[in-house]
Design a protein that fits this description.
The chain is mainly alpha-helical. It is built from 13 helices and four strands. The relative contact order is 0.10.
Length: 327
């Protein structure tokens, strides 16, 4: 919602064109960090207590309209009516978009603004995402937030930190299956262009959760004319040196329940929310790999292949064994 404000781009430009020393990735992270404080102040100034401000603007508009109806000859309410209506509509739309983004609902269901509906969805999501109790392995129940957090940390520390013996990779196995042609290999290894970086970022949905730095893809799209050059430099710097700055590689781990009745830490799976720059880099790599995968993956492979379904092989097996005993 803040990206539609007329002063948004001016705020970004004022804090973005600062002199930064270091690599392109480091310079991008420093600019984003310096801009965050200005955007927080911008949000506080224009969008803090958005529901209260929207309601107040609507009441002010109603008062002005009532004054004009009771005294049509009064010039003051008539002159200010247009500005008051514009402000009320702007804040109402900002309030709707705020709850729309928080509710993570992509389709309208109840009306034009849906403010009440989105608010209820936000409350439902907060209640559903909270973990009130967890059962330990010894069947004891813990309910305090500190103990629950520590239980998850201990579980994933022991799970992800476990060492296991693995068989060494036989290099000869790569010669047994299909391989890429020299032309395909050259196409995969060609230099990344700024156009690829822009297309990767602009293909990320605006409603995707932001990463640890707090910036969503919507910010980069709206301010691309200002920040696009520095973003392209940072991404191209990664593909040139093959190393990613730690700040860009940070992720937020979120816990997703596997069922509606998750009671232990094993009933949750984790997902990582990455920064937009990280997602753009992985998308560039995946977009290059997609056209050549059909030359490497066997035709019998049905799962996780575009245009195929895991049930295809099941249907094929059923057709093969149907009436198999007939002579």
């Amino acid at each position: 919602m803040w990206a539609d404000h007329p002063d948004f781009l001016a705020t970004v430009e004022a804090r973005w064109n600062l002199s930064m020393d270091g690599t392109a990735q480091f310079s991008l992270c420093k600019r984003l960090k310096a801009l965050k404080g200005a955007l927080k102040a911008f949000n506080t100034q224009h969008y803090s207590h958005i529901s209260f401000r929207a309601k107040e603007a609507e009441l002010t508009l109603q008062v002005a309209q009532n004054q004009l109806e009771s005294n049509p000859g009064d010039v003051a309410p008539r002159d200010s009516l247009g500005a008051l209506r514009k402000k009320a509509v702007f804040l109402a739309e900002a309030e709707r978009y705020f709850f729309y983004q928080k509710a993570k609902i992509h389709h309208l269901k109840e009306g034009d603004r849906n403010t009440k509906f989105f608010h209820n969805m936000v409350m439902r999501n907060v209640a559903r995402n909270s973990i009130g109790a967890v059962i330990r392995a010894d069947e004891t129940v813990i309910t305090t937030a500190e103990d629950i957090a520590q239980e998850f940390v201990d579980y994933y520390t022991s799970l992800l930190g476990t060492e296991a013996q693995i068989l060494p990779v036989d290099d000869g196995v790569f010669e047994w299956g299909p391989i890429l042609s020299p032309e395909q290999t050259a196409d995969l290894c060609r230099a990344v262009t700024p156009l690829e970086v822009k297309e990767a970022i602009f293909h990320i949905s605006d409603n995707k959760a932001p990463g640890p730095n707090g910036y969503s893809s919507c910010f980069f799209k709206k301010a691309w004319n200002i920040v696009g050059d520095q973003v392209c430099r940072a991404v191209l710097d990664f593909f040139r040196c093959g190393r990613m700055l730690r700040q860009l590689n940070h992720t937020i781990i979120a816990l997703v329940p596997k069922s509606d009745h998750s009671t232990s830490v094993a009933d949750y799976r984790l997902i990582s929310c990455c920064n937009v720059i990280y997602n753009a880099i992985t998308k560039i790599i995946s977009d290059r790999l997609a056209p050549v995968l059909e030359h490497l993956i066997d035709r019998c492979q049905a799962a996780f292949v575009g245009g195929c379904n895991i049930t295809d092989n099941i249907f094929l097996a059923q057709e093969m064994v149907r009436q198999y005993s007939r002579k």
